[in-house]
Design brief:
3 domains; SET_dom_sf; SETD3_SETD6_MTase; alpha+beta; Protein n-methyltransferase; methyltransferase; set domain protein methyltransferase, domain 1; transferase
């Protein structure tokens, strides 16, 4: 039997949090996972399962290293495995590929990864699993997330229909939720340092054999030339061409690292592939301050909006620096027209610029408005001038640009006026079987974004023109 198979059998009878974590920690240590700081798995009241510092951890600390052989990985160059139809594999996106690998590993009674798989979360509270009424986000009047979840459901169902083994919807949704909420991505390096050393050792052995067997004048020189060619190839491929210029991307589900929860303010934290040790390592944000004993150890998953965090991770981050308010194009035009009646040239200007999809979404943020939002406003408010400014991509005159900022501030204020207050959302959520706390937190953050957007746009209007 494989290593830890007896332990894995015991896990089937162990269901408590401490049992699963204890078995996982024992397996992690035996499998070569190295923790460089005193940390433990902990169930937090607000964020759920995560990692707690048992003593203070300094900023920038390298906290854990995991051998890559323990992770489930896919990359854009990965060929279909023997157990999966090639057409299915090619059609599958990275999350579906990881989900298939995860289900395959979980069904393998002899898998070495059983202790890790056993402590993965068994349930999720993401909108894709909600009722149709809740996932419509009607309570918060936010069609952007409703459209995103509807597309997500269709995509997941289509991938499940092609997946090997005909997984149930419940199993498939679980595996996809694990992949989407716990995987990280980065550039793919097609070789490892250990593999390169093996190649180099093989080349040196062949060179020696050639010199001994062939013999004669020049044999040693020819053998040495062959060895040098191998060295040059490895140096160029591994240090110059491979890692730096490969466009391939990998997505990874990695034990232990997947326990670290998110804080968008810790943008300098990192998860990196360490080429020389063929391992993944996590490092804390050097500007994030020390992690106090008893506090949660956090990293950033990247610049995620609350739309993305709620859709794929099932939570909302307060004061998220990357949050936006997404406005459907049709509503944006109606709000701009309500602010000031648009001219007859407005819609033709949009058509000429190719902005004809009324269901497209545009962003308002705490800093003002996104590029596509400003561009659309320029085109409909000042069509003639915008057509001369790279079809609205470039700023207009100071006076016209100030007018655009004021109009978009009015849009932010109109969207804010149309939204329920958090306490009204809480009451409506109870009546419509909607996750109350999440919806209340979500609406509070969207209101915060709109308020900040209005202020920023009005400041910009004062700054660039009267």
């Amino acid at each position: 039997m494989r290593q830890d198979s007896l332990l894995a059998e015991g896990l089937r009878r162990s269901t408590t949090f401490s049992d699963l974590n204890g078995a996982f920690e024992e397996w992690a240590k035996k499998s070569g996972i190295e923790k460089f700081e005193p940390m433990e798995i902990h169930e937090f009241p607000d964020t759920g399962r995560g990692v707690r510092a048992t003593t203070e951890i300094v900023p920038s600390a390298r906290i854990v290293k995991v051998p890559s052989r323990l992770a489930l990985q896919v990359n854009s160059l990965t060929k279909s495995p023997a157990w999966c139809d090639e057409a299915c594999w090619k059609a599958a996106k990275w999350d579906a590929r990881l989900a298939m690998m995860l289900l395959r590993e979980e069904q393998d009674a002899r898998s070495d990864l059983k202790p890790w798989l056993a402590q993965l979360p068994r349930s999720f509270n993401t909108p894709v699993l909600w009722s149709d009424a809740a996932a419509a986000f009607g309570v918060v009047s936010y069609p952007a997330l409703s459209a995103a979840v509807a597309a997500q459901r269709a995509e997941w169902d289509a991938a499940r229909a092609k997946a090997p083994g005909a997984p149930s919807k419940e199993k498939w949704d679980w595996a996809m939720n694990v992949a989407r909420s716990r995987a990280f991505s980065g550039p793919y390096t097609p070789s490892t340092f250990v593999g390169s050393l093996s190649t180099l050792f093989g080349a040196s052995t062949l060179a020696l054999v050639y010199a001994l067997v062939v013999g004669g004048a020049g044999a040693a020189d020819q053998a040495f030339d062959g060895f040098l060619a191998a060295v040059v190839f490895i140096l160029c491929n591994d240090f110059l061409i491979g890692p730096r210029f490969s466009s391939a991307k990998r997505h990874v589900l990695c034990p232990w690292i997947d326990l670290l929860n998110h804080d968008g303010n810790l943008g300098k934290s990192e998860i990196a592939y360490e080429y020389f040790s063929d391992a993944f390592a996590a490092r804390l944000d050097p500007d994030g301050g020390a992690v106090a004993a008893g506090s949660e150890v956090l990293i950033s998953y990247g610049p995620r909006t609350n739309d993305v965090l709620l859709q794929y991770y099932g939570f909302v981050q307060p004061n998220n620096p990357f949050d936006i308010f997404a406005v459907q194009q049709e509503m944006l035009i109606l709000d701009l027209n309500a602010h000031r009646t648009l001219s007859a040239e407005a819609l033709p200007a949009l058509a000429k610029a190719g902005l004809t999809d009324p269901t497209a979404f545009h962003a308002l943020s705490a800093d003002g408005a996104g590029e596509s939002t400003s561009r659309l406003a320029r085109l409909v408010l000042h069509p003639a001038a915008a057509s001369q400014a790279d079809e609205g991509k470039q700023p207009l005159s100071p006076t016209a640009e100030a007018d655009v900022h004021r109009a978009l501030a009015a849009v932010a204020e109109a969207r804010l006026a149309a939204m329920l207050l958090p306490e009204q959302v809480a009451a409506a959520a109870l009546a419509e079987d909607v996750p109350r706390e999440l919806m209340t937190a979500f609406i509070a953050e969207k209101r915060r974004v709109l308020e900040a957007s209005s202020r920023a746009l009005r400041r910009k209007a004062l700054g660039v023109g009267a």
